[in-house]
């Protein structure tokens, strides 16, 4: 833990007291989004202190030329990144001729932020004394509508406390923005058109290179004590990329002046005429009005929480943590559009470029399958199917592979690889396995096999072809090996025979072969169509099987463990507990050379394999490998604690499971890795959900049935969650005395609890 200023609360994220050192961290933590767009919790008014400005639009990106290795053959020429979108929230404020700026006020007191997760709004309030002696109370509420998802609204209220005040509001929209992480300080937005009306304005701009067109809009209304004063701007200033209105008002001491600002984006991904769409959106929002928009927001979030909430009784910090994770996941992705995916930072920052990683398949899909309609998870799978041609092109052009072998990118926006580090781009190839595993996992959970003959089989064939060609035969070992890789543990580069990579390669080939046979029997027309399209023969499948059947796995017979890779035991095996705390995190303290030579593991690697393929190994094997590798794991990846929590719970190491749960659920709230100001770890938040449902709840799917092995941390009185399993809603409630399983509706659901079949809703299992 590196910070502890967020107040414990069951439903809200709360900060009290103004501290300039916390501004950027809070901008991340209090971010808001609605699946279509999002923004950091930047101040609406001028702020001259350190800040990280960021608003983002789903699907809008730019190919920023990489600074690393772009001259090398096969290296990505650009690093695609989500763009800082035009600013629509800005409202400069003058009070008695002085700018409101919390960095220059003589006093700021009663400062409070609240992110209300239950209702989906962000509120900021404070009292301030300006240099001219005017004392004011300010309250601002902002939300991004889930229903009208191209619009957001701000209600900005000012009450003078010690004297009458002339208040000037200067709302604006501005496309002259840059990215915090721009490589070459390039401009990303080309202004096209500015349009101004009585109380509304529009700036249309398009991205250079990618040519996404975006219309940014605003509509302003001024109120005094809650009554519309029906004034127009006294001045309108504009340039090619910015429009700013000025509204002057006089308000008596103790009275309240306010501006309500509607703003947002319409994009060419969804509209042929973005300006006309923006005008329509404003009309719809104005017609509804602030109160109706807010009530709709509350109702929409209520429906989301009805299915996705996890309750924890007796541990407020744990409860706050899981709800924060679930809230951010739903703010980032709602599954409406198969062209979109889930960036590791969502709408909270720019690190990792906002692109798609293997995190989606390995961590996020289980959350969306279980808490939403299965179509949402199917859309995530369809995203990869739609990019299969690019994956084949990537393997062909950059690796010299042939015959339709597919290497999915480590990082992508449109299917092209756009990561800028060799050891990730061309060595961290295990991501291919996660994409195949997600297809298997989707069918296992939903029972919907139709995706495989329709789309998934082509993906599985491309991936199997990749592994067949990527493996090489070792005469010395008389087995197939996979050389020069980076496993999930990115603190090891260019190593040979990473156990997890080799294992998932074998599994992918076996699984693809099984599905080819199954589709042949049950969907013969699809089988014929696909095999003719990809030109797959029985002889080629037999060649794949040779690789799978004779794959090499490094082991230590002496320790009874699988080795993370060849030579792992040659390292200086000093466990983490003996590492001086002053050296942590090692990725910020040590040279990269020292990190690579160390035995320290960034995240679950061998244990990632045990997580995916738990049924392939005995519990005793898991325990030996867990005890060995956990002792060397520094958990400097957000994806690490959740896997360890699940496995610790399975092994009845409940104190450890709870500690790992708390770390994953409060990773950002407590800033464990000293980086939250860069944005929140959105994709790992799905792992937090898994650590409760799969870890403490022990949920698994085996033989088309839900299995549970419920456990409860001693720190909790009870917990509950819901699962949408094949269109039946199951509620699981666990306390120290019993576990109850309740099914919505009249249809029975047979589940397996601690190895014994039971009818959900007809019993309570005694703990």
UniProtKB/TrEMBL annotation:
InterPro entries: 6-hairpin_glycosidase_sf, 6hp_glycosidase-like_sf, Gal_mutarotase_sf_dom, GH65_N, Glyco_hydro_65_C, Glyco_hydro_65_M, Glyco_hydro_65_N, Malt_Pase/Glycosyl_Hdrlase
Catalytic residues (UniProt): 490
Signal sequence residues: none
Entries under Pfam families matching the protein: Glyco_hydro_65C, Glyco_hydro_65m, Glyco_hydro_65N
GO biological process, one term: carbohydrate metabolic process
Start and end residues of each Glycoside hydrolase family 65 N-terminal domain: 14-268
Any GO MF annotation of the entry: hydrolase activity, hydrolyzing O-glycosyl compounds
Residues in Glycoside hydrolase family 65 C-terminal domain copies: 699-757
Binding site for substrate: 358-359, 602-603
Superkingdom of origin organism: Bacteria
Record-annotated Glycoside hydrolase family 65 central catalytic domain positions: 323-690
Similarity annotation: Belongs to the glycosyl hydrolase 65 family.
NCBIfam families per record: PRK13807.1
Protein name: Maltose phosphorylase
Organism: Flavobacterium saccharophilum
């Amino acid at each position: 833990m590196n910070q502890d200023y967020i107040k414990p609360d069951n439903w809200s994220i709360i900060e009290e007291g103004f501290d300039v050192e916390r501004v950027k961290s809070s901008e991340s933590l209090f971010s808001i989004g609605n699946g279509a767009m999002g923004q950091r919790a930047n101040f609406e008014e001028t702020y001259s202190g350190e800040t990280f400005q960021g608003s983002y639009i789903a699907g809008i990106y730019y190919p920023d030329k990489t600074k690393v290795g772009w001259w090398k053959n096969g290296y990505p020429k650009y690093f695609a990144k989500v763009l800082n979108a035009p600013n629509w929230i800005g409202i400069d404020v003058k009070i008695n001729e002085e700018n409101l700026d919390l960095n220059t006020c003589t006093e700021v007191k009663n400062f409070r932020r609240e992110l209300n997760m239950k209702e989906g709004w962000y509120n900021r309030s404070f009292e301030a004394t300006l240099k001219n002696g005017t004392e004011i109370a300010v309250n601002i509420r902002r939300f991004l509508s889930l229903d009208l998802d191209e619009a957001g609204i701000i209600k900005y209220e000012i009450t003078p406390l010690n004297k009458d005040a002339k208040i000037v509001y200067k709302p604006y929209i501005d496309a002259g923005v840059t990215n915090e992480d721009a490589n070459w300080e390039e401009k990303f937005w080309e202004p096209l058109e500015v349009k101004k009306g009585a109380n509304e304005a529009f700036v249309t701009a398009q991205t250079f290179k990618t040519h996404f067109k975006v219309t940014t809009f605003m509509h302003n209304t001024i109120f005094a004590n809650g009554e519309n004063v029906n004034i127009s701007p006294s001045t309108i200033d504009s340039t090619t990329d910015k429009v700013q209105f000025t509204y002057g008002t006089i308000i008596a001491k103790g009275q309240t002046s306010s501006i309500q600002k509607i703003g947002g984006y319409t994009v060419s991904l969804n509209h042929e005429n973005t300006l006309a769409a923006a005008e329509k959106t404003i009309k719809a929002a104005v017609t509804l009005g602030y109160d109706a928009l807010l009530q709709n927001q509350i109702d929409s979030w209520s429906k989301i929480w009805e299915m996705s909430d996890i309750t924890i009784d007796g541990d407020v910090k744990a409860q706050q943590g899981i709800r924060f994770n679930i809230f951010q996941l739903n703010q980032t992705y709602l599954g409406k559009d198969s062209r979109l995916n889930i960036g590791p930072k969502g709408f909270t920052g720019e690190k990792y470029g906002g692109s798609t990683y293997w995190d989606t398949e390995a961590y996020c899909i289980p959350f969306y399958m279980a808490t939403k309609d299965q179509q949402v998870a199917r859309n995530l799978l369809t995203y990869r199917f739609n990019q299969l041609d690019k994956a084949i092109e990537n393997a062909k052009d950059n690796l010299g592979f042939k015959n339709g072998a597919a290497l999915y990118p480590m990082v992508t926006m449109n299917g092209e690889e756009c990561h800028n580090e060799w050891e990730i781009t061309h060595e961290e190839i295990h991501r291919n396995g996660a994409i195949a595993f997600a297809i298997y996992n989707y069918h296992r959970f939903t029972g919907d096999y139709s995706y495989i003959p329709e789309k998934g089989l082509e993906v599985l064939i491309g991936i199997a072809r990749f592994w067949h060609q990527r493996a090489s035969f070792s005469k010395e070992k008389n087995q197939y090996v996979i050389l020069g890789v980076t496993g999930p543990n990115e603190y090891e580069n260019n190593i040979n025979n990473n156990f997890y990579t080799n294992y998932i390669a074998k599994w992918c080939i076996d699984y693809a072969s099984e599905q080819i046979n199954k589709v042949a029997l049950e969907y013969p027309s699809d089988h014929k169509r696909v095999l003719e399209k990809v030109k797959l023969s029985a002889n080629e499948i037999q060649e794949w099987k040779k690789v799978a059947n004779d794959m090499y796995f490094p082991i230590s017979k002496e320790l009874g463990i699988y080795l993370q890779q060849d030579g792992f035991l040659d390292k200086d095996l000093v466990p983490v507990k003996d590492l001086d705390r002053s050296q942590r995190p090692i990725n910020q303290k040590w040279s990269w050379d020292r990190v690579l030579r160390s035995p320290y593991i960034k995240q679950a690697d061998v244990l990632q394999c045990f997580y995916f393929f738990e049924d392939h190994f005995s519990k005793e094997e898991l325990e030996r490998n867990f005890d060995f590798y956990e002792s060397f794991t520094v958990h400097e990846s957000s994806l690490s604690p959740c896997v360890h929590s699940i496995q610790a719970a399975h092994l009845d190491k409940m104190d450890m499971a709870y500690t790992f749960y708390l770390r994953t659920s409060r990773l950002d709230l407590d800033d464990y890795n000293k980086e939250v100001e860069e944005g929140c770890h959105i994709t790992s938040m799905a792992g937090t959900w898994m650590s409760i449902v799969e870890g403490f709840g022990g949920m698994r799917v085996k033989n088309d049935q839900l299995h549970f092995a419920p456990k409860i941390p001693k720190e909790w009185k009870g917990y509950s969650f819901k699962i949408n399993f094949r269109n039946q809603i199951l509620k699981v409630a666990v306390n120290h005395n019993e576990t109850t399983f309740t099914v919505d509706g009249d249809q029975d659901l047979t589940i397996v609890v601690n190895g014994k079949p039971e009818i959900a809703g007809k019993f309570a299992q005694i703990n």
